[in-house]
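User: quick one, fold this
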Amino acid sequence: MTDLAAGPAVSRRRQIVTAARVLLEAEGQEALTMRRVADRVGVRASALYKHFPDKSHLLTVLAGEMLREVAGVLATAESAAPGSFAALATAYRAYALGHPHLYLVTMGRALPPAAAADAAAAPLFRTAGGDEAGARAAWAFAHGMVVLELGGGFPPGADVPAVWEAGIAAFAGRAAG
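Assistant:
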């Protein structure tokens, strides 16, 4: 009997997460309120608190989803071009630019200590050939570039793709050497 009761709760929880993500992706973090999520799901805001104690917990679930998706994107890039930092960085950037609000919400907070973060980082660590410091530096490059690009941190007229290529070349040369 508990399994039957858990079904609708899990379904409602999924509806809440999906509604929150759609709202976040379409309008940004400022638009993501529990009231607006509840409106999208068709319930009172107070009903959301049966599934999530607060907005922060909902954001943690969304962050976990993003990290699992990034892990998949990077695994695909790694399969297509084993050992290629350029392929990983390009896939990482494409994902971030395709989901800017979700990316910034996730990466602008402490990452969940879940396996999702490890899975997302695994292809980069494999590409670095065991060089943990090099892998972390490469991730910092990719992350910093994406944050600058999404936040408009480059001066007008900057050739952002050229900056990406220069960074990728620097890290690719380091991994090869």
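User: anything notable?
Assistant: The two ends are 60 Å apart (CA to CA).
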